[in-house]
Design brief:
The structure is a single chain. This protein is an all-alpha fold. The protein has 20 helices and 4 strands. Helix 3 (72-97) packs antiparallel against helix 10.
């Protein structure tokens, strides 16, 4: 227990060193396009991501005197987060350059946000969860306010900061109550104490309420969703994509660590709250999105509804207070859904950035009018993303929804059967606003005939992103097996 085991966390140590190196190197960069800083950042992310994927087969190990646990779950989520950040920066570079946002801070803060994500998903202790959460959150607040001369972005940053601080306070208060009841900050030790049945149940349940509320804020699930539409719309699109990508995986990671690894004996309590959150997210997200004309705001409400499916997957892992044989299937389907949702989100917000230009944001759904006539390939790729978010085969979104619904139905409980039906009906309602975007792109007359000038690397990554959404839909087995393996080995130790 006293072993620091520095070797186990070498990707995180390297990431911290590289973030400092990027910050120092940028001081000497005079190129307005920040080419050396950009490529050094991308190289750093590629190396760290490769380290995580390469270490997935290693046996789980504790590090930093038990504060962190390095296992396939943390490696998978950290590796995917690094990959998501690489793609985000490819899309963000031309957008940030035309808005005077292409500064060293963009790259350094992105790396530090990723470090926060990595610490969160590898946490084995309440302290490290909170430290990782604050490192990630503070970096994202600053990135949201990076356009200091832009009133709407500054307002979005203020809202995000105030509500994010409130969410962190909820989570911290809940964790402090759990500590007060169990006498330990270590997640495995908390599990042991709760399992012993010697703790005041009332204090534990109150602590769980605050923990679930804090997790709901971070996931962007209703009724803790109020920050999502305003921040997604108001933040520069580059910052919106940074908020909508890796942090969702981090929130899922700490939900698994806290609720499943630490508080499983209290499953009957947190399960009920998750189910209410899931249904509320599906209802609020899908119904509110119909009324939106702003594409970023519509995608924000779409995020809320998509998180409803992730929460349904998390909630269906325990039946009658006990995890049965299909529990791992439920948690792995939630992880599969979250990873593939991030992949689709990267593409949809990335396309908004590629269509934007100097003095023009391309944020309204009407701005996509006639895109098929201006750029058939972009329109086709965007249609793939919309079909995936709707859940239309053969896209990965269909298989993600199917995996979660299958996990619910195999519980054999009538409640989950009814919830599966509700989820399908609300998804059909959601199809309206996704397919409206496709209709506008393919059948409306273009109002803007300006040429689309995106850099070659951004066009290539956009194409690969769209192909990946189709490929994982046709061949989902590999990623689903990887998620299953990560969850199995994480919950076994």
């Amino acid at each position: 227990m006293n072993d620091m085991n520095w070797v186990a966390v070498y990707p995180e140590i390297l990431l911290l060193v590289l973030a400092c190196v990027v910050a120092l190197v940028d001081l000497f960069v005079t190129d307005p396009r920040r080419t050396p800083t950009y490529w050094l950042t991308q190289l750093s992310l590629a190396v760290v991501g490769a380290m995580h994927f390469a270490a997935m087969g290693n046996a789980p190990a504790e590090a930093m005197q038990g504060l962190l646990v390095v296992d396939p779950l943390s490696h998978l989520l950290s590796g995917v987060s690094a990959l998501a950040l690489i793609i985000t920066l490819v899309y963000a570079r031309p957008y940030a350059e035309s808005r005077e946002m292409l500064k060293g801070e963009l790259f350094t803060l992105s790396l530090l946000a990723l470090l926060g994500v990595n610490v969160m998903v590898a946490s084995n202790n309440f302290l490290s969860i909170y430290l990782g959460l604050e490192l990630m959150s503070l970096s994202l607040y600053a990135l949201t306010a990076l356009r200091r001369d832009h009133t709407i972005s500054t307002e979005a940053a203020m809202k995000y900061f105030v509500l994010g601080a409130l969410a962190s306070g909820f989570l911290l208060y809940g964790l402090s109550m759990m500590y007060g009841a169990t006498g330990s900050l270590s997640i495995p030790r908390v599990f042991e104490v709760i399992s012993s049945g010697t703790v005041n149940k009332g204090v534990l349940v109150l602590g769980v309420v605050f923990v679930v509320a804090g997790l709901g804020f971070k996931l962007g699930a209703a009724p803790f969703h109020m920050w999502v539409p305003d921040v997604y719309q108001g933040a520069p699109t580059a910052a919106t994509l940074l908020i909508g990508g890796a942090p969702k995986l981090a929130a899922l990671g700490i939900a698994l660590r806290l609720l499943v690894e630490g508080m499983l004996p209290l499953a009957t309590d947190w399960q009920q709250m998750l189910l209410v959150m899931a249904v509320a997210s599906l209802v609020v997200g899908n119904l509110a999105a119909i009324a939106q004309s702003n594409l970023k705001r519509m995608l924000a409400y779409s995020t809320i509804s998509q998180m409803g499916f992730v929460v349904l997957g998390l909630a269906s892992g325990v039946v009658n207070g006990q995890p049965d044989n299909h529990a791992l299937n439920a948690y792995s389907s939630a992880m599969f859904y979250a990873i593939t949702y991030v992949l689709t989100t990267l593409g949809s917000f990335g396309l908004i950035m590629l269509l934007a230009r100097q003095g023009f944001e391309s944020e309204q759904i009407s701005d996509l009018a006639g895109l098929f006539k201006r750029s058939p390939w972009y329109a086709l790729v965007m249609a793939i993303y919309m079909f995936s978010l709707t859940g239309i085969p053969p896209t990965v979104g269909f298989y993600g929804k199917l995996a979660v619904l299958q996990a619910m139905v195999t519980t054999g409980q009538s409640l989950y059967l009814w919830l599966a039906v509700v989820a399908v009906v609300l998804s059909l309602i959601g199809a309206f606003y996704y397919l409206r975007v496709v209709k506008v792109m393919f059948f409306d007359e273009p109002t803007d005939h300006a040429p689309l000038n995106a850099p070659a690397d951004a066009r290539l990554v956009m194409s690969l992103n769209g192909i990946a959404v189709l490929a994982f839909g046709l061949l989902p087995g590999g990623l689903l097996a990887l998620c299953g393996q990560a969850v199995t080995r994480a919950l076994a130790h």
